[in-house]
Specification:
This protein is an alpha/beta fold. The protein is 42% helix and 15% strand.
Length: 253
């Protein structure tokens, strides 16, 4: 089954239909370390190359009419990596924002962060707040950067809030619907994902957007994230447009 979902980027430029663009696309930016290793480089060079790619993909996504792009930048499990790599990734996130937020703002991109932001350094929290404030009124694509994010952690935090509301009497158990739960998540504005893209030949979601991916279409490529291009994004969207999305039902014959 998974092999039928596997795609390798081709040289031909895909043709997409304007009327069937996925509203919310999520990307697991995987393969930075492997890309660097193949070239005899340190993993840090792969992460830096991956950060450079993101800027172009954001603009490409906006150009074709995607409304929200959620990318997995740093998971709650990534703290288990070597301290030196974690330190570099935190510095890279800070550097990326300092170098690119103005550019994103000029292109009408709104930046949001999802995850346990308060678990990050105060300096990075300040830069995150400034980035969100600067772009808050932009009306183009919304870029949601998942930093210190885990799907299970997100659901647990939402459950805790609901339990407290029930205990205080401001929420009745019958009020807890799927819509209500979606509104308690970090992604409340753009909850359901239409298309999930994962490069680098892995077939798992890695604790990313567990609730939001319920009926998402998955698209995989053997390309590592630093090799990803606007054309690769178009290929993924073109594949999405050929899918029949039934959401558990059946199309009338």
């Amino acid at each position: 089954m998974l092999k039928t979902l596997f795609k390798r980027s081709s040289a031909e430029k895909p043709i997409i239909e304007d009327q069937n663009i996925p509203r919310h696309v999520a990307i697991i930016m995987d393969g930075n370390g492997r890309w660097a290793k193949r070239r005899g480089m340190p993993r840090s060079m792969g992460h830096r190359a991956g950060a450079d790619v993101l800027k172009q993909i954001v603009i490409g996504a906006d150009e074709i009419g995607i409304k929200a792009l959620t990318v997995y930048g740093f998971s709650t499990e990534n703290w288990k990596r070597p301290e030196q790599e974690v330190s570099f990734l935190m510095s890279l996130i800070k550097e990326y924002l300092q170098n690119n937020v103005s550019y994103m703002h000029e292109h009408n991109v709104r930046i949001r962060f999802i995850g346990h932001i308060h678990g990050l350094s105060e300096e990075l929290q300040e830069i995150i707040a400034e980035s969100e404030e600067l772009t808050a009124n932009n009306t183009g694509l919304t870029l949601q950067l998942a930093i210190n994010y885990g799907g299970r952690d997100e659901i647990v935090r939402a459950m805790r809030k609901m339990v407290e509301s029930v205990k205080s009497g401001t929420l009745q158990s019958d009020d807890i619907t799927e819509s209500y739960v979606s509104e308690q998540l970090f992604t409340k504005e753009f909850s359901d994902v239409d298309l999930l893209i994962r490069p680098s030949s892995d077939y798992r979601i890695s604790n990313f957007l567990l609730w939001q991916l319920a009926y998402a279409e998955f698209w995989f490529t053997s390309l590592h994230w630093p090799e990803f291009t606007k054309e690769t994004l178009l290929e993924a969207v073109a594949a999405y447009q050929k899918r029949e999305r039934r959401f558990g039902g059946l199309q009338e014959e």
